[in-house]
Predict the 3D structure of the following.
Amino acid sequence: MSDAKQQNEFDFELVSPEKKLMSEKAWQVTVPGEEGDFGVRAGHSSLVSTIRPGVVEIVSKQGDAPAKIFIAGGFADVTATNLTVLAEQATKVDDMDKDAIEKDIANLEKKLADTKDEIEVSRFKKQLSLENAKLAAVSAA
Amino acid sequence: MPSLKEYRDRIASVKSTKKITSAMKMVAASKLKKAQDQAEASQPYARAMGEMLARVAAGVTVTAASPKLLIGTGSDKRHLLVVVTSDRGLCGGFNGNLVRLARNEIIRLQGEGKEVQVVTVGRKARDLLKREFSSLIIESYTGIGSSNRVQFSEADQVTQFVLEQFEAGNFDVCSLVYNNFVSVLTQQPRAQQIIPFKLPETGANDNEDEAAEGLASPYRFEPEEEAILAQLLPRNLGVQMFRALLDSAAGEQAARMTAMDNATRNAGDRINGLTLEYNRARQAAITKELIEIISGAEAL
């Protein structure tokens, strides 16, 4: 597409099942893909990817500091002119509380040690890896 | 004939009932607005999910190794029904109609020799189905949407339970029985199969468009289509569950609004009728007193 060359912005959308969280122009967005992080700019080739729990970094203008948003996994739908991120849970990294997350981790680890039920165990393990990803995101910020 | 005082008391009591029903109607109307807004806000996600699913599904050839959520377990012997109603009553035939449909479904399936299990969402479904089918109910959820809006996590809780049961091999086919929100005046109880997943039939035209688009800009998939599909299907299940809960929540308020509107009107009619009777009785009493005075005076 010839337009894409002149355009250096694209439409970025972040939607959760409950509502549309963000819809704005962006210059570059970094997405934590299942098989490695990837950056998206205008004119990116079409791509559908799964997302692992991690931080999405949105740079609205070249040179700006990125806005960081933690998402608990989801899907990314990329075309040359827009990027849609489907996330089940999204929180601004700045709004996350490290102590609370550490407490949750400790709680989960305790529950995991106590329970024997297989279904419960796998559920707790899932939650635990999610909390660990959150912790990593907060610590890096 | 009741005395004048009895009439006055009855009118007062109907009036206070009318006040309550009209207040409930207004509360339901404002909650309905909220529920509709919420249902609308959930649209972008559902739409994006649908588009993505169509794109991925177009690139996948269905084989015996495809996810079981798509192709099923190869049997349709054991059914799971997820019955969604409200927690509260006073909303006309909303819950009654739904439970009747669920009951017919259960009896039909059992008549065909299928095994049926039931998950209830909402207190009314549990209470109304417990009497007849208490042995079939394997799980009940109540209090969903009690914080004024349905949270996705609440829908997810139900979805996760269903998925766990499916993975454990406890059923083959799963259907959602819920009130579809057609309009404020109409809520239509319906049963929708969610496992194995059926691509909507009306999507045929969309798929052609997708295919044309796909040619113009071929999609790359990361990881490959099958792996994405395996993750997408459970999420899609969550979206459908969430949507059913939202529809049901909006439908409940709409049904309550209509029911309370009728109740308010009936109370108004009743008040008019009673007032008429009251006035007649009052006039009769006055006439009687006059006659007594006149005939007393004549006797002198």
Q: What stands out?
A: Residues 34-257 of chain B form a domain with the Pyruvate Kinase; Chain: A, domain 1 fold (CATH 3.40.1380.10). The two ends of chain B are 32 Å apart (CA to CA).
